[in-house]
């Protein structure tokens, strides 16, 4: 099996946990996604908690994978944010000079999102904050098409749901109970206890680290053709990038 990498966004950029023949590697934080990808072998499988594949027009509340996951995660459905159109995502600037520009940019994104969706809807401020990261991955996958089948989208709540025998975790991932439960699930599914008990590296928090480990297990299941895909037969966007969430 190739080296598999689980990735989650964090304050410092991207936190990655990898496992190869020698076992789990020390978690690392990368400033950019391209730096992360280039740090691992050319055949590595990377599962990341970030939307991949952007539509020109949105019918309903987001892309098809997001709609399907909300139906599965009834109590955690609100954790599945709908992704707006490509135009709306790219309306967000990659950096913000100040609070007023941030506000104006958000208003522009909402306007474009409403104009490219039916029924019209606008992303939340939290979703807006993720758009530079969505752009970052999108640009890389378009520039490096060989990554399209090696860099896959996943979602921590969906991953933990499947890893937990298709039972939702009631406690928040930011609570001590929630972190303990998630550690137990990871260990029960083959992640070394010393790894999940380790301190998160600088630039990341404990819940970021545990989410990255969940993504690692998805990457390994994908590599061994055991992962579940939403939808079962994924489509692609206008750039040929797959639109699917794997668990």
What does this structure look like?
With 247 residues, the chain is of the alpha/beta class. Helices cover 40% and strands 18% of the residues. It contains 9 helices and 10 strands. The strands form 2 sheets. Strands 1, 2, 3, 4, 5, 8, 9 and 10 form an 8-stranded mixed β-sheet that branches. Strands 6-7 form a two-stranded parallel ribbon. A hairpin with a 5-residue loop joins strand 9 and strand 10 (242-246). The longest helix has 19 residues, at 125-143. It is globular and about 50 Å long. 42% of the residues are buried. The mean pLDDT is 95.
Q: The biggest beta sheet, please?
A: 8 strands, mixed
Oligomeric organization of the protein chains: single chain
Q: Look at the structure and give the mean pLDDT.
A: 95
Separation, N- and C-terminal Cα atoms? 18 Å
- Helix count equals 9
Rg from alpha-carbon coordinates: 17 Å
SSE-based structural type: alpha/beta
* Helix percentage: 40-55%
- Elements, N to C (H/E): EEEEHEEHHHEHEHHHHEE
